[in-house]
Amino acid sequence: MESQDFADVLKAVRSFVRDQVVPSExxxxxxxxxxxxxRRTSREMGLFGYALPEQYGGLGLSLSEEVRLVFEIGYAxxxxxxxxxxxxxxxxxxxxxxxxxEQKDAWLPKLASGEVIGAFALTEAEAGSDPSTLTTSxxxxxxxxxxxxxxxxxxxxxxxDVFMVFARTGGEGARGISxxxxxxxxxxxxxxxxxxKMGQRGAHTAxxxxxxxxxxxxxxIGTEGTGFRTAMASLAHGRVSISAVCVGLAQRILDxxxxxxxxxxxxxxxIGEYQLVQGLIADSQAELYAGRSMVxxxxxxxxxxxxxxxxxxxxxxxxxxxVGRVADRAVQVYGGMGYMRGVAVERLYxxxxxxxxxxxxxxIQQLVIARNLLR
Length: 375
Ligand SMILES: Cc1cc2nc3c(=O)[nH]c(=O)nc-3n(C[C@H](O)[C@H](O)[C@H](O)COP(=O)(O)OP(=O)(O)OC[C@H]3O[C@@H](n4cnc5c(N)ncnc54)[C@H](O)[C@@H]3O)c2cc1C
Prior knowledge:
The chain is α+β, with helices and mostly antiparallel strands. It folds into 3 domains: 3-113, Orthogonal Bundle (Butyryl-Coa Dehydrogenase, subunit A, domain 1), CATH 1.10.540; 118-224, Butyryl-CoA Dehydrogenase, subunit A, domain 2 (Beta Barrel), CATH 2.40.110; 229-374, Butyryl-CoA Dehydrogenase, subunit A, domain 3 (Up-down Bundle). 51% of the residues lie in helices and 15% in strands. It has a 4-stranded mixed β-sheet. Strands 2-3-7-6 form a 4-stranded antiparallel β-sheet, with no helix packed on it. Strands 9-10 form a two-stranded antiparallel sheet. Helix 6 (90-98) runs antiparallel to helix 8. The longest helix is centred in the middle third of the chain and has 37 residues, at 227-263. The protein starts with a helix and ends with a helix. Bound molecules: flavin-adenine dinucleotide (FAD). Flavin-adenine dinucleotide binds at residues 120-123, 128-129, 153-155, 197, 205, 354, 357-361, 363-364, 367.
C-alpha cells in the first residue's frame, strides 16, 4: 500500500479504536457480544480483510504493515480483534496460501468484506499441542469426501459461515492430513454451545462435530497430505500477528497503569512518586519496548522470506509472556482496585492469559525455536 494511504488507514483505525471501541468494552463484557455499530464500522474500514490480497477486496498489507495496524487494533479488548482476526489470519491465510483460484474467487472477497466469517478447525480433544495426531477422518467416496470426527475450542465456530477443516485422508502423522472447506449448513455438521471462558467475552469458541459430512472433492484445499503444512504456514503468520496484539494491549495496560499511578494518593503522595511503583512501571515499559522491536523485526524477516519459523515463535513466546507480566504489574499498581470487577486492568488481566495458550503454547514455541536452531 502507498505509504500515505497506509498512514491514513493507521490514523483512522487508531481513532476508531480509542474513541469508539475502548468506551464500548464494558458493554462487550456484559453482553458477551460485539455491538453491531462496531461491526459495521470495522467492515467499512476494511478490517475484515486487512491481511487478504487487494485483488480479492482486502487491504493487501504486508506483514510489516499488518503488525503496525494490529498494534492499534490491539489497544482495545482483544475480543474486538478476534471478530475479524481469524478471517484475516489463520482461516483466511489457508485459502491465500493453498486455495485454488476458484476457491479464492468464491470465498476471499466475502471474507474480506465481512459478509462471511471463517473459522480454522484444527484442534481436537486428543490433539492440541500435537495436531499431527488428529483423528477426524475424510474418506473419498466417488466425487465426494465424507468427514467424521470432532474439533474443540474453535474460535468463531458459533458464527462461522465457512470452516477450514483439517482431517486425516490416509496414513499416520503429519503427512496423512488434508484441508477441506466446509460450509455452515452442511448435513451432519453441528456446532456445540459457546464455551464459558475465563476472559475475552465477546469472542466465542465451541466444539464442532462432523457426522458423515459430505463435501465435494472440489472442497479439498491443496492436495491430499498437504494439510499439516498448510496449517503451519497459517500459524506462522498468525503468531507474528498475535505478538502484535500483545504489544498493542500491553501499551494499553501500561497507559492505564501510568494514569492510575499519577492520580492515586496514598500516605500523602501520589503512588507514582514511590520508587517501588516506578520500578514496576519501568519494567513494563522496557519489556514492551523489547516486544515491539521484536515484532517489527520478525515481520520484516518474514516479509523478506528470511525467517518464517524462529522469528514468529520467538515473538509469540516473548510477547505473550510479556503482556502477562505487564498485566500482572498493572493489577499490583492498582492494589485492591485491580482485583475488582468493572476495572479495566482486572478484565484485561484475564483476557491476556489466553495468548500464552492458543496458536501454540509457550512450551510449543520453545520447542519450535530450539528444534530449528538444532536442526
Ligand atoms: C479461547 C481459545 C481459542 C482457540 N481457538 C482455536 C481455533 O480457532 N482453532 C483451533 O484449531 N484451535 C483453537 N484453540 C486451541 C488451542 O490452539 C489449543 O488449546 C492449544 O494449542 C493447546 O492445546 P491443548 O489445549 O490440547 O493443550 P495440551 O496440548 O493438552 O497441553 C497441555 C500442556 O502440556 C504442554 N505440552 C503439550 N505437549 C508438550 C510437549 N511436546 N512438550 C512440552 N510441553 C507440552 C502444553 O504446553 C500445556 O502446558 C483455541 C483455544 C482456546 C483456549
